[in-house]
Amino acid sequence: MNRHRWRKLLGQAGIVFAVLVLLSPTLFFFFWMASLSLKNEVDNMAFPPVFIPHLPTLANYAKVLAENEFGRDTLNSIIVTFSATALALAIGVPAGYGVAKAKATGSATLILLARVTPALSFLIPLYLIFQKLDLLGTLIPLVITHLVLTVPIVVWIMIGFFEGLPPDLEEAALVDGATIWQAFLRVAMPLARPGITVATILAFIGSWNNFVFGIVLAGRTTRTLPVAVYNSMTFEQVSWGPLAASALIVTAPVLILTLVMQKQIVAGLTAGGVKGG
Amino acid sequence: MVVLAVIVLPWTFTLIMSLADWSPTGGTSWVGLANYRHLFTDPEFGWAVVRTFYFTAIGVIAPLALGLIAALCFHQRFPLRGAARTVFILPMMATPVAIALVWSMMFHPQLGVLNYLLTSIGLPPATWTYSETTVIPTLAMIETWQWTPLVMLILLGGLAALPGDPYEAARIDGANAWNCFRHITLPLLWPHIVVAAVLRTIDALKSFDIIYVITQGGPGTASETMNIYLYQQAFAYYHLGFASAVTLVFFVVIVAVTLVLLGLRQRSLAL
Smallest Cβ distance to B95: which of A226, A265, A269? Predict the structure, then answer.
């Protein structure tokens, strides 16, 4: 009995050790990101590197936040991400419902096709259209292209959720004289609320993280945060502290969302195999 | 319908454009298949294809192997499992540009922390993204770090759905842990592994953000994958007609590779 317990304990220790090894690159990466952002320029340029800052400083953050363009870039990111997520829900939730109810496998394949298609290939035709319509100086092109990203995520997750719902309740509603639209709004929608939460989170993260649409379509006044960070990287290569601070600020909302909503995120990712980024 | 329009319209447009010499100033002339002829004779594109497959091979195999190990670990019960899993998936959720930025600072040949760590354990410093021979493996390493969690999650879902009976039977027959894994877990998990492999392949072929932010295809053109080549042609040189041809060829390559992998799944089911 005692030997059995020992073996079990040893097995547990082995697993914990393996997990620690697997986690170490991630832990070290985020530790280093934070460390760079909290050190002054002297410590950041020191060799051997300084791991724990001697005098942790928030000066890097202050510098990033004080930049007069930072507020506008943040606002751009917020507007684009919120619009793209909201519109994707408005389009994608009914579309997912339709596909699930019609058992239209063809549409599901199309959504898959959207995943296979490189984002850049949407950009060439859309870029020309936006140029023709003279929209390139506005946020509209960004919102529209982000929909290419967010709508498939929402539809894909909602198909899974609506297919999992028992059809009895809606059928009862239809027998009682409700229209299909009413059955969807009053019966299916409330039941699928957990699915909508998952879809919202993943669409939000996908849009917030997006870089490629922004780098092509955004001008100086319409750039989103990832583009702004990329630009500051090419212009002020030498200053690591503020760069790391801005990187952390950009990704902080996503990291916090992941920590808080990890259960829903894991459910959504495994259900659809849809990637967040 | 909307979804259909969003996907089909750009493709039709791209197909038409790929047959034209499209310049941003407005002069457009039909050139037929000249763009394609140019593409298939351009050695730079050929190398881009080779690099893409090199990058993808590492970026698929390494995450699959590590993801399988990780899934087997996370399938067991241990203290703080939930927290550990959350930390583990952070790389795939975090903003790619932010990640790329920090990695590029870590790769710095003189001041980077990675070379310090290497030399402090007695290894020679590495050239990371600064040499033509190491840039692709280095970028694939980041890809692996970023996307192993997705493989882990898919396989973890597969492990959770495995039936308990075969294991009971095997235990009664006296099978050891390795035999259980080799003859029960692996075959039953195979469909999930194929799904993970397909998704990983598609995403690795399309990888853009990390490569673009860290190297922009450099040094020279050493990390210019198909997607980077496409971006340069379209939005650095504005060869939009030619870039449309690149897009279509790129798309055909991705679909072909995906179909081959899915065929692998069919065959494995038939066996």
Answer: A226
